[in-house]
Design a protein that fits this description.
Elements (H helix, E strand, L loop, with lengths): L1 H5 L6 E4 L3 E4 L3 E2 L4 E4 L5 E4 L7 E4 L9 E2 L2 E3 L2 E3 L11 E4 L1 E7 L2 E3 L6 E4 L11 E6 L2 E3 L9 E3 L3 E6 L2 E3 L8
Parallel strand pairs: 1-4, 2-5, 3-6, 4-8, 5-9, 6-10, 7-11, 8-11, 9-12, 10-13, 11-14, 12-15, 13-16, 14-17, 15-18
């Protein structure tokens, strides 16, 4: 996945993933990237100890945010073991993002984490996001929450389906 994203022009573009099974290890997203699959027949598997898709803007200012992300119509499956810092989709410092038509199963941490950054002392803020039409499933062993929102302004979450997604020992 990182090779496909790197092959896109600096202005971004589409990574179309036909039906199939793909290993996904720490895929780094940047501006104006769309990842498009063919529903549940496009399956990304994230092994234990890794994250799936990650986007992390480079500054405290919104002007440094990653913009225009679209993650659409695929299935992403985690290892189902517990590691609270390894998420299927991890966004920090992003603006104008949309996650739609994704089936997310058995993460180690969260299915989707909307955070404030991974660098100590540098908060990042997220703006104008939509999470809609997704299915969140868990075996109840590995995950924390379906969606954790630490820092977001203008985030719409609607028409999603949740099953077994909250680990009883997590806040």
């Amino acid at each position: 996945m990182n090779a496909a994203i790197s092959a896109l022009p600096a202005s971004g573009g589409l990574v179309f993933c036909p039906p199939g099974n793909y290993s996904l290890v720490d895929a780094i997203l940047r501006d104006n990237i769309t990842i498009l699959g063919c529903g549940d027949s496009t399956v990304f598997t994230v092994p234990a100890g890794y994250q799936g898709f990650t986007a992390s803007g480079g500054s405290v200012s919104e002007s440094g945010n990653i913009r225009g992300l679209r993650l659409c119509n695929f299935k992403i499956v985690g290892a189902g073991t517990f590691d609270q810092y390894k998420h299927l989709i991890d966004l920090n410092g992003v603006s104008d993002y949309r996650i739609e038509g994704v089936t997310a199963e058995n993460p180690q941490g969260d299915h989707i984490y909307i955070g404030s950054g991974r660098t100590v002392g540098m908060e990042r803020h997220n703006y104008k996001g939509t999470i809609t039409g997704n299915k969140f499933r868990s075996n109840g062993v590995g995950n924390r929450n379906a969606i954790s929102v630490i820092d977001a302004d203008g985030l719409d979450i609607f028409d999603n389906d949740f099953e077994g997604c909250s680990r009883p020992t997590m806040p």
